[in-house]
Specification:
Rossmann fold; three-stranded antiparallel beta sheet; 10 helices; globular
Length: 274
Amino acid sequence: MPDPKLLEIHDATIWRGSTCVFEKLNLDIAQHERVAILGPNGSGKTTLLKTIDRELYPASKPGSYIRILGKDRWNVWELRKRIGVVSNDLHHRYTPTTSALEVVVSGFYSSIGVHGVLADRVTADQVAAAMDTLSKLGLESLCKTALLGMSSGQQRRCLLARALVHDPDTLILDEPTSGLDFAASFDYLGRIRRLARDGRNIIIVTHHLNEIPPEVERVILLRQGRVAADGLKADILTAESLSSVYETPICVAEVDGYYLAYPGTNREFSVPTL
């Protein structure tokens, strides 16, 4: 029997607060795929991410469903053992005095830190697993260091360790190198590439083409709450497609499997409509 798909969305209407972001959305992502999701601000990227992570749910209507790993319903805490998320929103929810070890251990409870009664539930095995994960990311010497005492790159690796502490099959990375300098960005992208080669599902939500590692094969372009384009990276990351979605002239270059975007001019072509 084939593996269930990571994500199946059929005829779904998804609201975020009082805003209908998606209407009649259809989208599938298989297991062991490596996918990048791009689109302008307001196109629905964050809403889609929160839907996969079960922070948002579709409107109930006949024939509409969202299935994750073949199931319509999940215990959210069990799902988050299967899907690790790293995002700026999650990063900013931690207080600067939280230590690296506390960040990673909190991944076992899908919490922000481990305080009060929750701290009493932490086991020696969980601490050992957290230390092992920190070690794999080169952070074992910083286990007691607060986030405010780390570089931005080290902080982001702490969040990655939190996502990896369950050894999940799927990683969702929201704007993974935002705020990082070249050295930290390249180090972080190198780690993502190694994780992709291990066969994990990798979903990268980004504004920047250079954040998409060569191992990503598929790109989904969103615009105004709909899928504007979906397919192989080389077919989607073109000047025509990006210029249409972003409504500005864009040129694209490919170097060693990475794609780079730079400004086009109105003289070169008019913005087409997808």
